[in-house]
Amino acid sequence: METEAKKSGWELAQVNIARLREPLDSDLLKDFVANIEPVNAEADRASGFIWRLKGEDGDSTSIRAFEWDANGSAGVTVNLSTWDSIESLRNFVFSGDHVKIMRRRFEWFHKVSEMTTVLWWVPKGHIPTTAEAEAKLLEIRNSGPTPNAFTLQICFNHLGERMSH
After folding, report:
1. What is the dihedral of CA 117, 113, 160, 122, to 10 degrees?
2. How confident is the model over 53-64, as a mean pLDDT?
3. Number of domains in the chain
4. Fewer CB under 10 Å: which end of the chain, C or N?
5. What's the pLDDT at 121?
6. Residues 49-70: what's their mean pLDDT?
């Protein structure tokens, strides 16, 4: 069933970042790195998936963004993508190989008190930049969830109306 956002020409952008405990080529990160391609392939096939940030290697591990947020860690990983709806993103995030990896995230990434994920609506076909994503993450950290920058737990439709899930 087509959502109101799809009908109105909006897509959902999301970014999530994580502070690495060790460099990507370390033994500690071996399992994480081995699962990047399969999880990305699962996302690419997921219902409602539109686009994801990729470097020349096919994933986003070579992308340099959010370095201001490394905070003494071994670096920051970035996942930036667009989806046709909140429901599509939620279905991917909480199922399959992705949820298995999420359960192990603290083996590889530092726990942080700040927000590391933010969602926002973009016009259909818009490809969000890392600079745009950085601004949205700072916005949610400074103001909390709003119609302009929100989370899967506290979300808004493309009209700015709070949604229940």
Report:
1. -20
2. 82
3. 1
4. N
5. 98
6. 86
Average predicted confidence (pLDDT) for the chain:
92
Taking the whole predicted model, whether its pTM rises above 0.70 is answered as: yes
Average pLDDT over residues 7-27: 94
- Residues 147, 151, 152, 157, Cα dihedral to 10°: 10
Range of the domain at 124: 4-163
Hey, how many other C-beta atoms are within 10 angstroms of the C-beta on 152? Answer: 14
CATH code (residue 126): 3.30.70.100
Phi, psi of 15 (to 5 degrees): -135, 140
Q: Write the pLDDT tens digit of every residue in 76-92.
A: 999 999 999 999 999 99
Q: Which DSSP string corresponds to 60-89?
A: STT----GGG-TTSS-EEEEEEEES-HHHH
| Structural contact between residues 6 and 50, judged by C-beta atoms closer than 8 angstroms | no
